[in-house]
Amino acid sequence: MDARQHLPRSADLSTLAEAVRTCTACELHENGTRAVFGEGRPDARLVLVGEQPGDVEEREGHPFVGPAGKLLNRAMQDAGLDREHAYVTNAVKHFRFTRGSGPRRIHATPEVRHIEACRPWLNAELALLNPEVVVVLGATAVRALLGNAYRVTRDRGKLLPFEVPTNGEDAAVHTTHALITTHPSAVLRTPPDRKEEAYQALVHDLTVAAKALA
Q1: Which phi-psi region, left, alpha or beta, contains residue 138 (left: φ > 0; alpha: ψ -120 to 50)?
Q2: φ and ψ of 58, to 5 deg
Q3: Residue 64 and which of 36, 81, 122, 192 are 20 to 30 A apart at CA?
Q4: Looking at the whole model, is its pTM more than 0.85?
Q5: CA-CA distance, 175 to 131, in Å (whole number)?
Q6: pLDDT tens digits for range 138-183
Q7: For the chain, what is the largest distance between any 2 Cα atoms, rounded to a whole number of angstroms?
Q8: Chain-centre distance of CA 70, in angstroms?
Q9: Angstrom distance (rounded) from CA 23 to CA 2
Q10: What does the radius of gyration of the chain's CA atoms come to, in whole angstroms?
């Protein structure tokens, strides 16, 4: 089962964002506060795809507004990219988490079934946007968009040919570029003595995307 039954037949980004609120394609909707859809310019040449909304994003209802989002904003600025002219989203639209002994919700990596259930939402976004470059942030996004043939550590920082996915067999296929890099949350988790190196590696990868758009 996936989200195709929840997609409106004809939709723009705002209609999709409204429709995703009632998605029940996987069990993640049962415990979360809300689904978090992508945000940004509908004519964005650059799309950045992460894993899933975090605790802050799910509570506020916007993607990449927590600590990882703030780091991403800084890295984009250092790479010569403007988030105001980009579109940001996630492979999975609900927050997967576990609970500890207190009220804190602890991030849990989405499983393949969650990625597959949510894929029609991501496909619909990308088909409408038809970006020139898709920055793929972290392993879950790589799996969702590029499959199992690529790895973050091995393939990061390279412009790769990428066919913009759609949900229709007869839809036109557009070839563009994908660029793999680490998720900004991974930079935040890096030990202090290596954190600046990890941050600069993220900036370096984003600079490749900036040059491709120049």
Answers
A1: left
A2: -70, -35
A3: 192
A4: yes
A5: 10
A6: 999 999 999 999 999 999 999 999 988 777 655 556 779 999 999 9
A7: 51
A8: 15
A9: 10
A10: 16
Tokens (6 digits) for 171: 């839809």
Tell me which residue of 23, 19, 1 sits closest to 11, measured CA to CA: 19
Q: Report CA torsion sign: 107, 142, 164, 28.
A: negative
Nearest to 89 by CA among 22, 136, 148: 136
Provide φ and ψ at 181, rounded to 5°. -150, 175
**Residue 48, both tokens:** 């950045």
Fold of domain 3-213: Uracil-DNA Glycosylase, subunit E (3.40.470)
Q: Quote the tokens at residue 126.
A: 């990308």
| Residue 91 CB neighbour total at 10 angstroms | 24
User: What would the pLDDT profile of 105-142 be if each residue is shown by its tens digit?
Assistant: 888 999 999 999 999 999 999 999 999 999 999 999 99
Tokens 């605790």 identify what position?
55
